[in-house]
Predict the structure.
Amino acid sequence: MTPKQHQPTFADKVIAFNKSLRLNVSLPDNIRVMNPFKENPRALSVSSAFYKKYYDDHRNRYMILGINPGRFGAGVTGVPFTDTKRMTEKCGLHVPDVTTHEPSSVFVYEVIEAYGGVDVFYKDFYINSPSPLGFVKQKENGKEVNFNYYDSKALQESIRAFMVASMKAHISKGIFQDAALCMGSGKNYQVLSRLNEEYGFFQRLIPIEHPRFIMQYRSAKKHHYINKYLAALKEISGI
C-alpha cells in the first residue's frame, strides 16, 4: 500500500467530524440546537453509509455551502439537502421507519441529475454548511420550526467561533480553496463574505439563490435556476 492509502479517506474525515459535533453555547430564548448525530442514531448510520458510498477516496472536492441543516433533510438523514425520499430513490440507501419530503432536496437532486448523476456530482462536490448543526424555534403553540443562524444577531454571535472552526474543519477534509458556491445570495452570503475576508477560506465565494427560495417563490422558473446552478458549478470547478 502507498502511504496515502493508509491515510483516512474523505469519508472517514466527514464521519469523524459528524461524530464529534457538539455546541455548548448560550442560545436565545425559544431556540434550541438540532444535532441529528446525537439525537437520532439513524442519522449517523445512514449518513455514514452515504459518505462511504460516495466519498471513500482521497480526492479533493469543491465546496457548496448552505445555511444550517433543516428538520426534514439533514435533520433526519444526516446529509445536507437529502431527505429520505432522495436518499432511497437517488442514493439507494434505505432510511428505516420514517419518510420525509423537503422541497430544497427535490431541487438539489434535480441539479445533481442534470450535472450527470450522484456518482459524478459527489466526486466533484461536497455540500455542508457554515453551521453544520441546525436550529429550531419553538412557537407559542409549542410547534418547532426551522431557524436560520443569521435570523438572530445573538445566535449568530454565539456560534461565530463554532462556524469558523467548522469551516476550517470542512476545508481540512480535502476542499479546494480557489472557489466555493454559497447557497443563499442575501444574508447567508453577507455573513460568509465577512468571515471569508477575515479568515481567507476561499479565494472566491460565488453567491446563488437558495434552493428553498427557488422552490417557494420561483418554482415556475425552476429550469432556469437549474441551468444557473450548472453554470455556477462549472465556474467554480473549471470543468
Notes: Residues 9-17+25-237 form a domain with the Uracil-DNA Glycosylase, subunit E fold (CATH 3.40.470.10). The mean pLDDT is 94. The beta strands are 31-34, 61-65, 125-128, 134-138, 144-147, 175-183, 205-208. The first strand starts at residue 31 and ends at 34.
